[in-house]
Amino acid sequence: MSRRWLFWTQLIFTLGVCAFIIVPVILSVLAGVTDNFFIGVKSGLTLRWIGQVWGLYADTIYLSMLIALSCLAITLVVGVPGAYVLARMRPRVARALEEIIVLPIAVPGLAIALALITTYGGVPDFRTSWLFILSGHVLYTLPFMIRSVLAVLSSMNFRQLEEGAASLGATFWRRFFTVVLPNTKPGIVAGALMVVTLSIGEFNLTWMLHTPMTKTLPVGLADSYASMRLEVASAYTLVFFIMIVPLLVAMQLVARQSARRRRVVTPDDDKRISV
């Protein structure tokens, strides 16, 4: 009897938490496709508000995608070799450098934005360009790429793999591109998805760094809510979900695939690592 009571209590609590999180999302999405927000679904469903969002804010969506993909390219070029260098360093030095690299995550985004404005705000062409926002996004997302790749490198003996390749005559660059990179693929993919999703949804930094000509999707979303056009703002939220949810699902699939690859079969089974 007590177990049944405990089961129903846990079930009701879990459903209550899920409802607390999901219901606002569902209502927001419905508001974006409802003809009259104040009457509700009874007023009918429409795609008119999504059309208005596309007409008013399409440039912010394109700019967000441009910044996110550019941010991904830079963090890949800088972050993957950076994680490799950290993995080869002495643990004490590596930990100290890692803490410095991760610092932008601990510092509020507004503080990073103010630092960038104070330092580079006097360069007009750079200040008014989308590259200014990109620099802030790179600072904020680079630690996620480095830590994802570094976690994979730390979980395997890549030095032994490199030594084996070197004994066969492979040069440094050949070892890096044919041994290190393929083995760190799960970390690279996880880091890439994290960078893209964070860059698309980043608001604090972007709010301080943007100009009227360089609005991104979250800034446009804030503007639409500030104008009290709830249907348009909700439709904007729906567009945001359409862009971000597939990336989050892909992140979960990659994490699951990575976990399967790391699963070690006990010696009593096959004495090998499942690949």
From TrEMBL:
- Residues crossing the lipid bilayer are 12-41, 61-87, 99-123, 129-153, 188-209, 233-254
| Entry protein name | Putative spermidine/putrescine transport system permease protein
The family database entries (PANTHER family) matched by this protein are listed as:
INNER MEMBRANE ABC TRANSPORTER PERMEASE PROTEIN YDCV (PTHR43357:SF4)
Source organism of the structure: Varunaivibrio sulfuroxidans
Tell me where it resides. Answer: Cell inner membrane; Cell membrane
Q: Where's the ABC transmembrane type-1 domain?
A: 61-251
Its BP terms in the Gene Ontology are:
transmembrane transport
Q: Does the keyword Iron-sulfur apply?
A: no
| Membrane topology according to the record | Multi-pass membrane protein
Q: Does the keyword Transmembrane apply?
A: yes
